[in-house]
């Protein structure tokens, strides 16, 4: 429990650096009304961070899914709030001797305004996904364990706001009246610039994502272009009596379209990364289905294993192939991390997978299972539940019932593997070995990328590698 708290504390310190609009607003509020006013302003942002952290650590897909779908609207609302606060600060023309009425209403206003700005920044949830991966927080946690992480995040971010507010209050006493006035104007102007830049960046990213994939090409000039924006639909798939939660992105038209089925990683769900990849694939002319391996408790790894996940993936494939707008002869799998392991295993045991895309496939998991079960190959060895890892006995037992490299050797079609040089969860060596086993495989290495291509350059580059690879498969 202490280790989880410390990891949360480090996440709060590393990812809670007081930069950007909230940092400027906190400094201004401290100059205006003192330490408590500034500190509570920063705490509004910390509470928003905690809510995003809760969504990430407990896998609340309602929140993450909403943010994915309404990212542009949330960003614009938050940007407008920042601009308005900047205008108010400049127009008030604060002086050093001016006293702010320090009441509960004032403090609540400071807290609430910062909270509103921070909660309207969907990029924060992506930061936490990256943070959880970087600190090895990718499994299912109990309420107590998850709360330890969240408490650490809250204290870590709060420490920053206490420090910046204290430092600002100390510097305030050294300001002349003229410098004090100028500082407020500068901070107000910075807020306006932050807000405008967020809107510009939002519209730029939206415009970029709605162009044809040929414009997005980073590595090569492709000839295939998208003629329309994708449609979104809930595709109901049942496994026994359980509904599999997923979403299909498809180009406009009747099809039939080539289809890509995307599988997420350990203790994750489709809103983390695979849904965003699916959106880009649909713009390139592919129907793309992202789904949750575990339903309805998406993050729980109890009573699940790579073999139970393979059963779910096979069921998804069988039902997706029956859709009238899908071309079953052009069926592709894309898996990330443990989802890459699952996809590789399933593809090796089917005849209808045209090609395979693997992001940092977790071929390391069998060695990890051996390390956690030193006597696994001794006669009569009984696997036990691993509470520290959040898995039941069947997880390791099923993982060690075969050799993944023996299995993938059976897949004779083309394979693309994409891996980052700074991946500490799945070392690059495992993908290099896989390339040597497959008959037709290529390895794309992204310099500096970690485990999880959630955003930025790793996401853009890996997505383009994937689109280029899949287009070549359709031409052949």
Number of strands: 10
Largest sheet: 8 strands, mixed
Order of strands side by side in the largest beta sheet?
A: 1-4-6-5-7-8-9-10
What's the CATH class label of the largest domain?
A: Alpha Beta
Q: Name the structural class.
A: alpha/beta
Report the CATH superfamily of the largest domain: Alpha/Beta hydrolase fold, catalytic domain
Broad shape: globular
What is the string of helix and strand elements? Answer: HHHHHHHHHHEEEEEHEHEHEHHHEHEH
Helical proportion, percent range:
55-70%
Unreliably modeled segments: 208-229
**C-alpha-based Rg, rounded:** 25 Å
Architecture (CATH level 2) name of the largest domain: 3-Layer(aba) Sandwich
Give the DSSP E fraction (strand runs of 2 or more residues). 5-15%
Tally of individual helices: 18
N-C termini distance = 54 Å
How is this structure best described in words?
The strands form 2 sheets. The protein has an 8-stranded mixed β-sheet, sandwiched between helices. Helix 2 (20-33) runs antiparallel to helix 6 (104-119), helix 5 (71-92) packs antiparallel against helix 9 and helix 14 (365-372) packs across helix 15. The protein has helices at residues 2-15, 20-33, 35-57, 61-69, 71-92, 104-119, 123-134, 143-172, 177-209, 213-216, 274-283, 306-320, 338-348, 365-372, 393-399, 404-408, 428-437, 456-475; strands spanning 231-233, 237-239, 242-244, 246-250, 257-263, 287-291, 326-336, 355-359, 414-420, 440-446. It starts with a helix and ends with a helix. Helix content is 55%, strand content 12%. Strand 5 (257-263), helix 11 (274-283) and strand 6 form a beta-alpha-beta unit. It has 18 helices and 10 strands. The chain is of the alpha/beta class. It folds into 2 domains: 2-208, Growth Hormone, Chain: A (Up-down Bundle); 215-475, Alpha/Beta hydrolase fold, catalytic domain (Rossmann fold).
């Amino acid at each position: 429990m202490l280790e989880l708290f410390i990891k949360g504390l480090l996440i709060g310190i590393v990812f809670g650096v007081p930069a950007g609009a909230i940092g400027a607003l906190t400094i201004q509020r401290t100059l205006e009304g003192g330490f408590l006013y500034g500190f509570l302003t920063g705490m509004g942002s910390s509470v928003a961070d905690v809510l995003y952290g809760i969504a990430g650590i407990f896998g609340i897909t309602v929140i993450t899914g909403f943010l994915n779908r309404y990212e542009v609207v949330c960003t614009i609302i938050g940007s407008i709030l920042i601009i308005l606060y900047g205008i108010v600060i400049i127009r008030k023309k604060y002086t050093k001797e001016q006293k702010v009425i320090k009441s509960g209403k004032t403090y609540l206003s400071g807290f609430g305004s910062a909270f509103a700005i921070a909660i309207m920044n969907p990029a924060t949830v992506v930061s936490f996904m990256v943070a959880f991966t970087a600190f090895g927080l990718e499994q299912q946690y109990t309420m107590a364990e998850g709360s330890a992480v969240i408490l650490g995040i809250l204290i870590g971010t709060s420490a920053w706001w206490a420090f910046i507010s204290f430092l600002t209050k100390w510097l305030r006493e050294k300001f002349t009246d003229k410098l004090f006035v100028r500082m407020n104007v500068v901070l107000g102007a910075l807020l306006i610039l932050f807000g405008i830049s967020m809107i510009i960046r939002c519209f730029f990213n939206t415009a970029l994502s709605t162009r044809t994939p040929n414009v997005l090409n980073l590595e090569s000039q492709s000839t295939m272009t998208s003629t329309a924006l994708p449609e979104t639909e809930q595709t109901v798939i049942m496994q026994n009596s359980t509904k599999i939660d997923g979403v299909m992105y498809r180009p406009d038209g009747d099809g039939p379209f080539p289809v890509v089925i995307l599988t997420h990683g350990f203790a994750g769900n489709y809103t983390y990364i695979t849904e965003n990849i699916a959106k880009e694939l649909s713009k390139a002319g592919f129907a793309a289905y992202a789904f949750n391996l575990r339903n309805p408790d998406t993050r729980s790894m109890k009573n699940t294993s790579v073999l139970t996940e393979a059963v779910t993936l096979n069921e998804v494939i069988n039902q997706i192939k029956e859709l009238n707008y899908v071309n079953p002869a052009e069926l592709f799998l894309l898996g990330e991390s443990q989802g890459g392991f699952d996809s590789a295993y399933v593809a090796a045991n089917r005849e209808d997978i045209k090609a395979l895309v693997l992001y940092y496939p977790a071929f390391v998991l069998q060695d990890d299972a051996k390390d956690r079960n030193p006597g696994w190959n001794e006669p009569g060895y009984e696997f036990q539940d691993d509470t520290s890892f959040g898995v039941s006995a069947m997880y390791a037992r099923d993982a060690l019932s075969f050799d993944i490299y023996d299995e993938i050797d059976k897949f004779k079609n083309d394979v693309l593997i994409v891996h980052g040089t700074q991946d500490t969860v799945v070392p690059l060596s495992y993908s290099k070995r896989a390339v040597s086993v497959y008959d037709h495989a290529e390895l794309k290495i992204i310099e500096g990328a970690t485990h999880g291509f959630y955003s930025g350059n790793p996401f853009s580059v890996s997505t383009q590698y994937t689109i280029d690879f899949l287009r070549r498969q359709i031409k052949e």
